[in-house]
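Let's sit down with a protein and look at its sequence and fold side by side. Please make up or recall a protein chain and show it to me in full. Label the sequence line and the structure token line clearly, so we can match residues to local backbone shapes. Go ahead whenever you are ready, and we will take it from there.
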Amino acid sequence: MIPIRAVGLMTGTVLDGNIDVALLETDGETVTRFGPYTLAPYPPALRTLLEQTLAAARQWNFAGPDPAIFAAAEAALTRAQAAAVKALVEREGLSLADIGIVGFHGQSVLHRAPQPGRIGATRQLGDGALMHQVLGIPVAYDFRSADVAAGGQGAPLAPVYH
């Protein structure tokens, strides 16, 4: 397979204030070239919104429908991370058409690890369809939910990486 450029995104649950953005080339199995990366700060208003969202998530605790704040936070977070992708790509003299895929982890707002006899639960914010609409690039997203539903810890890529 001919290598493609991929952009990966990561943010911490602790809200350190940054979006980690990295560009690499891959043939789908191995990294053929590591590229540039950046730490893109969240706008202050978004960080405040995410702090409020985390507080709402703790009160919600997986009981009942999602709190209303989740939708607003998810849209704002997705747009901020899409802007971070665009900024890195353009800073490197590339266009969005040069990128083959974006890996969009999203933001964990609540996570409960599995216990013996109990499947875990996780709630991730990140709208892959919206990111695709904004950037026009294929987006792989929500890596944790299926792993947790299958009895995992919600870190399906960590064993491969480590």
